[in-house]
Amino acid sequence: MTRTPRLGLRANLAQFTLLVAVNALVGGMLGQERVTLPLLAEQAFGLTAATGTLTFILTFGLVKAATNFFAGTLSDRYGRKPVLIAGWLAGLPVPLLLIWAPNWGWVIAANVLLGVNQGLTWSTTVIMKIDLAGPERRGLAMGLNEAAGYLAVALTTVATGYLAERYGLRPAPFLLGAAYAALGLGLSAVVVKETHDHARLEAGSTVNLSSTRQIFLLTSFKDRTLSSVSQAGMVNNLNDGLAWGLLPIMFVTRGLPLGQIGFLSALYLAVWGLGQLATGAMSDRWGRKGLIVWGMLAQGLALAVIAFAGGFLWWAAALALLGAGTAMVYPTLLAAIGDVAHPSWRARAVGVYRLWRDGGFAVGALVAGVVADLFGIPQAIWTVAALTAASGLIVALRMDETHRRGSA
Length: 408
Hints:
The chain is an all-alpha fold and 408 residues long. The protein has a single domain, classed as MFS general substrate transporter like domains (Growth Hormone, Chain: A, Up-down Bundle), CATH 1.20.1250.20. It is built from 18 helices and no strands. Helix 12 runs antiparallel to helix 16, helix 14 packs parallel to helix 16 and helix 15 runs antiparallel to helix 16. The longest helix has 30 residues. The relative contact order is 0.17. The model has no long low-confidence stretch (mean pLDDT 87).
């Protein structure tokens, strides 16, 4: 006998908790690269120009952005679970390619597959949690989802940094990724349940939009709120691409050991991850817009401090602020998309938003790489800081509040 689906975190606690764990494994797949690949580019493959080193982020960002878009469409057509399993199948070869890579081309190929893995798995876990949570606790649901993912990125970054310092850049750091991929595939195939019926229940019989083209244009350009959210997501990941690709290189040139570099990267990610446990729920209580505006401005200030100041303690404080600002923004942007988009086309709207958001990795790699090669890494950081602050001002001027304060 088929059970009628029910909406809400309490009614779906077991599956929701399982999906949180699955998304932690998704984040761990990304964490295996945060410290190791920028250093591998220079030390193993002799890439010295910033634009060359950042090709792996450019590739990853482009592929993940495109895959995000298709993840929403495919999950509406075929269901959420098959898309999740396909994402894990794409991720299985990634650690092995990085371990055995004889040249940089293998690393690029690994990041193509990682982009597919992240686009399909992370997008689908977001969509599935929105399906289960219903409208009342959407911010909390997104906070838990993103917290799990980025805490796993942080913990894996610390682990791989110390593994690389003790055992070398290969193979030890990437063995963690191999374990994550195997476990994620097993859980997704055997234990995770389909959630598409929950979205159908929330949608009822009303269908507002059916054309993917309409949804793309509305989310990207036509709707003031959705387009504001999309540009903020893109700029947020633009500065995260800078933090991923250039900051470890700058810290090496300033004489920091690998262990401290791993700690700084993980501090940023840990504050980001833990902060979302609070900020998602805060957006349910106080609204989305203010958190997004102040979060973007905080990120811009943090990047300015990194560019201006020097020394481990200053950088640690600035990266903590960068993580806090990102925590204010990340789950809140997703919750705002869920507020505005109708359940019948919400998965596709999430895919479009994540197309723009993760396209920020590619834009960041290009902008930061070119500016760093021409003028130096500090100037690249100043440029991205200005873009981030400007994005916050755009949200302040264009976005409408999407969640009535106190309604939750």
